[in-house]
Amino acid sequence: MYVLISTYLKNWYRRRNVAAKTERKKRPLPSRTEQVASLQAGHVYDILIIGGGATGVGCALDATTRGLRTALVEADDFASGTSSRSTKLIHGGVRYLQKAIMQLDYDQYKMVKEALHERANMLEVAPHLTRPLPILLPVYK
Fold it and tell me: Quick one: the chain helix, strand, coil %, rounded to 5?
């Protein structure tokens, strides 16, 4: 519930204070034909990324922020596959932790440890793209 309220308030603030002060310039998106023509116009790209899902777009963002001339191609609309339906949450291994504790399963503990290590790595490597999401879990046993 906190996340929903927090997100609502952030969006409300942006609409009220930021959007009101900026002039919105809307331009139509280029058609597929225009985009293909742009790719075929003889421009030189440093990197070509095939696939506009979460991984492809993430790679394109990373390449662009590093100053590389980046082209990204996608067969369908961007994020039209499974990545668009993702929760966008980094798994913390809570289910594995339950099994590790309740069943004294060392393999499950190792999974939790690995998940938390990867989470910490993402927070360190890309702090501008990640943020912790505190949660409270009920324990019944």
Answer: 50, 5, 45
